[in-house]
Design goal:
Layout: H1 3-13, H2 31-44, H3 52-60, E1 75-78, E2 95-98, H4 100-106, E3 132-139, E4 145-146, E5 156-163, H5 171-183, H6 186-229, H7 236-245, H8 248-259
Antiparallel strand pairs: 1-2, 3-4, 3-5
Helix pairs in contact: 6-7, 6-8
Length: 261
């Protein structure tokens, strides 16, 4: 079986960790051949060279990074690193569109076990169920976590994103989703996105509050979540707005403190 076929089969069966590097590279005493393969890829994929259309097609398949759903695609990543699997250096389905930040976080990782396989956007569809959630955490002056009530004034707050997988999902797939979330540091990324987003929706929340108090705020936020979910049910915005709609303190006026930072 040629390298490309073996790779595709492993992608379809989630067994990339079974691909032995020795089978996808020249023999160890032929290091110069490995270096030549990598150099050929880099040369032929450069601007104005014959392989450039393959590179551009891979980069243009998505406008948003499929690894995080936030960053703009700027680069092409080798899902299985070319430094370890040089025979896969120019295989189109091993070339994935990616943002600069995710490419930096992934580095040249290759899976050592089933759970260490990051998700492949061409083969892994995980949007059938909800797996991304968020919660608003409030703390007292001594750093203690507590459930703030409508009249409380917590010393600090934070939005936390986490993986909460459907119980019907295969346990092994669940491990991969968690590993993907950790590898690309999606929790921190989504927290930053939420911090930027909240001041921008304060006015609409305030208007809902003035019109009908906390119940109208909940309705407004739930509507925002449903709207975002029509396009991507596991968007960080869906998780954020659902979490806020479920929090009494936030809906009862705490949104002002949150929006103020």
């Amino acid at each position: 079986m040629i390298a490309a076929d073996a790779y595709e089969q492993a992608c379809r069966t989630s067994t990339l960790h079974h691909l032995r590097p020795a089978a996808f590279a020249p023999l160890s005493h032929q290091k110069r051949h490995k270096d030549a393969l990598i150099a050929m890829y880099e040369r032929r994929m450069g601007p104005g060279h014959p392989g450039r259309p393959v590179y551009e097609e891979a980069r243009n398949r998505k406008t948003k990074c499929p690894m995080c759903g936030v960053g703009s695609v700027r680069q092409v990543d080798h899902h299985m690193p070319k430094s370890v699997y040089p025979y896969l250096a120019a295989v189109p389905i091993n070339l994935l569109p990616i943002c600069s930040d995710c490419n930096f976080e992934k580095k040249d990782r290759a899976p050592a076990c089933y759970a260490e396989q990051t998700l492949h956007p061409y083969f892994d569809d995980i949007d059938e169920g909800r797996w991304l959630r968020a919660r608003l955490i409030t703390r007292s002056a001594d750093g203690r976590v507590f459930q703030a009530n409508p009249l409380d004034s917590p010393a600090s707050w934070v939005i936390e994103f986490y993986v909460d997988l459907p119980t019907s999902w295969d346990a092994k797939l669940a491990e991969r989703v968690k590993y993907h979330f950790k590898t690309f540091k999606l929790g921190l990324l989504y927290e930053d996105q939420a911090a930027d987003d909240l001041p921008g929706i304060e006015l609409s929340i305030e208007e809902a509050f003035q019109a009908g108090g906390a119940p109208d705020v909940r309705t407004h936020l739930a509507g925002l979540a449903r709207s975002r979910a029509r396009r991507q049910k596991n968007s960080w915005m869906v998780a954020l707005y659902e979490a806020l709609a479920a929090h009494d303190w936030f809906c009862s006026g705490g949104f002002r403190q949150v929006a103020a930072g």
